[in-house]
Design a protein that fits this description.
Order of helices and strands: EHEHEHEHEH
CATH architecture: 3-Layer(aba) Sandwich
Distance between the termini: 24 Å
Organism: Anaerobacillus alkalidiazotrophicus
Subunit structure: Homodimer.
Subcellular location: Cytoplasm
Number of domains: 1
Number of helices: 5
Main location: cytoplasm
Shape: globular
Largest sheet: 5 strands, parallel
EC number: 2.1.1.177
Strand content: 15-25%
Number of strands: 5
CATH class: Alpha Beta
Structural class: alpha/beta
CATH topology: Alpha/beta knot
CATH superfamily: SPOUT methyltransferase, trefoil knot domain
């Protein structure tokens, strides 16, 4: 399986990079994983609704330019459906079984994802009703993808 994680912004925090790299290394025996960063849109701290929409649209265009035509797209969005680890494992297994070997996860910027990105998505996944920094979501996501592959292979994992 080929997994792409398209994310807005650069990751600067070394501790997050180390954690992400560790899980990508572990995932190497299960899948090919790549992280694609697109630039975030520079904006002042205080934005009007129209300006927020404009920022999300510009970031959305950058994201969509990186999405493969034949990818199954899962957007991470607070309003998405909440899955447990077993459900994520089941969904990834189902995609592999039915020949959908390209899966793309999308993590938006601090304002979220544009309507166009949400419309292109095949599923919307929420990890919590809480808001997490999008940089931290990268680490949480790669850990959960790793856990999903362990579950699907019947290998031990912590519940």
């Amino acid at each position: 399986m080929n997994i792409s994680i398209i994310t807005v912004g650069k990751l600067k925090e070394k501790y997050l990079k180390n954690g992400i790299n560790e899980y990508i290394k572990r995932l190497g025996s299960y899948a090919k994983v790549e992280i694609v960063e697109v630039p975030d849109e520079k904006a002042p701290e205080q934005l009007s609704e129209a300006e927020m929409l404009q920022v999300k649209e510009k970031e959305g265009e950058r994201i969509l330019a990186k999405v493969s035509q034949d990818a199954y797209v899962i957007a991470l969005a607070i309003e998405g459906e909440m899955w447990g680890s077993e459900k994520l494992a089941k969904e990834l297994d189902k995609l592999a079984t039915y020949g959908r070997s390209k899966v793309t996860f999308i993590i938006g910027g601090s304002l979220g994802l544009s309507t166009a990105v949400m419309q292109r998505s095949d599923a919307a996944l929420s990890f919590s009703k809480m808001t997490f920094p999008h940089q931290l979501m990268r680490l949480i996501l790669v850990e959960q993808v790793y856990r999903a592959f362990r579950i699907n292979r019947g290998e031990p994992y912590h519940k």
